[in-house]
Amino acid sequence: MSSVIDRPDHETDHQRRLLPSIGVWWPMLEAPLQREILEHPTAPLRAAVVRRILELCELDDRPMPRSGVRLDQNERAYLAGWTHATDWT
C-alpha cells in the first residue's frame, strides 16, 4: 500500500533523511510504540522512538538528530492507510 503526497518546497533533503522509509520500520516497530505514534501522529517523536527505529533498520550508528523528528505528510498518509487496512483498534 502506498500513498504519496508531493513534498512541500520548504522541506530539505536533510529533513527527509532523518528516518528510513516508514514502510521498512513501521511493520517491525513494537505495538506500544506504534500506538504512541498513532495517538499523536503530528507530534515530534520521542528520542527513544527514533533510536528504536534506527536500531530496527540497523542504522543505530547514525548520530541522533538534535531537533524533534516528525512524521511528514507521506508518512502520516501511510499510517492512515495502514490503520484502515488493518482495522487498528
Order of helices and strands: HHHHH
Indicate the proportion of strand residues: under 5%
Please work out how many helical segments DSSP would assign.
5
Over all CA atoms, what is the radius of gyration?
A: 13 Å
The biggest sheet amounts to:
none
Shape: globular
- Category from helices, strands and their pairing: mainly alpha
Distance between the termini: 19 Å
Number of strands: 0
Give start-end ranges of low-pLDDT stretches: 7-15
Mean pLDDT: 83
Amount of helix: 40-55%
Number of domains: 1
Textual characterization of the structure:
This protein has one domain. The protein has helices spanning 13-16, 22-25, 31-39, 47-56, 73-86. Residues 7-15 have low confidence and may be disordered. It is 46% helix and 0% strand. The chain has five helices and no strands. The protein is mainly α. The radius of gyration is 13 Å and the shape is globular.
